[in-house]
């Protein structure tokens, strides 16, 4: 046996022993989770974790391994926490870019100070269409709040506002220890998140989404960006929030149209993953309980982003409806909402039976049912979309509600397919 084989044999033996010990440790973690369920204790006990890491470091006989052992311990604890969250049914996200809780609870806005660390400088970003009472409620719970309001609408997701917000942070003496809080829809979340990702190379970011669309989709997953030269999201970052607070009560001030637009992203999740959610939406339309819709949609999105944080594969499923939808959105120049464009963008990307069900659902919700442009009119914007690589377009196709496939076609063939589906 070579030296390498011998060393690998030892590693294999260690792994076998560690697998058995891991199972034993997780059995104990299950008991801890049961206890926490009964007592309402939080999963994370940072003080205990720090104490355990320090204590265990002393078990080592080779101090040169201390750093690696601490990293190993932290990974084991993160896995244990993720397991507890799963057992407790919590909405918790754990991926390479970070670990965070999603608190979905009516009235949580009034308790933001208990959920978030606001005892520092806080840049609260909102837009002119978000009722001011929401940002005021959060500001009242901050030690040093600075409120920045950008004009409402997609056009605000731009470099000018990005620079303006960074400038406000500089002027007000923000440091790396301070934070940014988004109080608004997807526009505010994407813009504020990009500021948080960039200022001082990254400060804490909390997201408090106030539209249905941002509550079911954009507030988690860490994609933040601004638009540029009429193209959506070409410049951005992956910045996971430190926590997301979702208060369904704030949805009461949305217009019917805004609410329906948010439903489009929930329909996207349902169409690709969840026949039960789709059936609920078909049955109840806009009357479907918001908490259930948000909870089910977020669990789908969480599963996707945890598996593929940076869109190397599976995460592209969240683009269902977006390849064509972004083209429609660019061409519509503000006359259609993002969710409406996504709804329209799903129509040519599915089998006729699925399309019929989507159309019936759109009618019920008051979403648009006809793409108001020809293929040629949106083609330029579809081509600009960053999902185009090497002359091919990869898109998501739904043959049956609850499942999907990825398909790839050369751009010109995709254009022909689109002409056929759109009818012009
Ligand atoms: N980062 C992601 O993963 C992701 C995913 C999906 C969409 N997005 C982005 O999200 C954006 C669309 O988000 P959106 O649909 O929330 O649009 P939006 O942020 O423009 O909000 C829509 C409108 O609702 C108003 N508003 C917000 N909260 C309100 C409330 N509680 N009551 C009354 N009015 C309220 C806003 O002022 C705005 O006029 C797009 O830019 C899209 O690209 C991002």
Name a few traits of the molecule.
alpha/beta; globular; Dehydroquinate synthase-like, alpha domain; Rossmann fold; Chorismate Mutase Domain, subunit A; 424 residues; binds nicotinamide-adenine-dinucleotide; 3 domains
Would you mind describing this structure in some detail?
The chain is built from 16 helices and twelve strands. With 424 residues, it is of the alpha/beta class. It folds into three domains: 3-89, Chorismate Mutase Domain, subunit A (Up-down Bundle), CATH 1.20.59; 101-253, Rossmann fold (3-Layer(aba) Sandwich); 256-422, Dehydroquinate synthase-like - alpha domain (Dehydroquinate synthase-like, alpha domain), CATH 1.20.1090. A hairpin with a 2-residue loop joins strand 1 (92-95) and strand 2. Helix 1 packs across helix 3 (66-88). The chain is globular. The mean pLDDT is 92.
